[in-house]
Amino acid sequence: MRHSNHASNLSDRPRVLLIDLDNCPHEILDLAETAQRYDLIIASHGQQEPRVPLGMAAILGQLVANGQIEIWAMPSGKNSADFGLTFVAGRLSAEMPSNAFFEIASKDKDLDHAVSLLRRSGFEASRIDASNLSVATISAFSAVSSMASRLASSLSGRGAKSRPKKRRSLHAAVKARGITPSDGMAALKELEQAGAITYEANGVPKYDDAILNQFAALAPKKKHKTEPLPVKKLAKLLPPKRSVDESQMDLFEWDEKSSDILIYDESDIPF
User: Fold this and answer.
1) What's the pLDDT tens digit per position in 116-131?
2) Least buried of 31, 96, 109, 200, by fewest C-beta within 10 Å?
3) With 0-12 CB in 10 A as exposed, 13-18 as middle and 19+ as buried, what is 192?
4) Under DSSP, is residue 202 helix (H, G, I), strand (E, B) or coil?
5) Counting Cβ atoms within 10 Å, is residue 37 exposed (0-12), middle (13-18) or buried (19+)?
6) pTM of the model
7) How high is the pLDDT of residue 65?
């Protein structure tokens, strides 16, 4: 295990960050900035390797070459990344000076045991809940496509109840929701790179609600239904003239002087 000679800008005390990439893979996107605040960063992951954007590959490679960052790949198995970090914490407790400060980034409360052991060894240590870091991470990764934000929206909120339980079914769902199947898979890859969706050793998808909700907030709003245009009132149409039987009109006679309708006596009616 190599130690960096990089001096922390915040304090003369050695600062160490241990990252559980199985729980917070999005942390890898901020490693260039995070490395400025720590003397040593060690990230551990299980079978699922973290996805690194092409723009980050060169930066990450330089940080690894300088000894500022180490990435430990653990064998597949439940909580393998946790065991790796616990082992690293124990080894560092024998190598680092007594005033070293440790932080463990993970949502997994089981790693509180590693924090407790470090404290019992005389070090100052704490666990950072990775869910509290997601907002800052997404602000740095806000250039997400509208398709990815729509997919995040469909997987959060009410859509969380019908999330696919298998990787294969998830792939089928995103292909169906995309404009084309390739567009859907590209959107899924964006969410995976941001840590919104990760996978267990057996391929079961894990959904990070905090990240999905942040991406969902970027989704284009649904357009409101177009209101019907106001229809002008039509002029009142006169009823069409009906054909009149002339024999019926013989019953009436118009008196122009009195403007009254005169009715013949029944005796005058010729029938």
Assistant:
1) 999 999 999 998 875 5
2) 109
3) middle
4) coil
5) middle
6) 0.45
7) 85
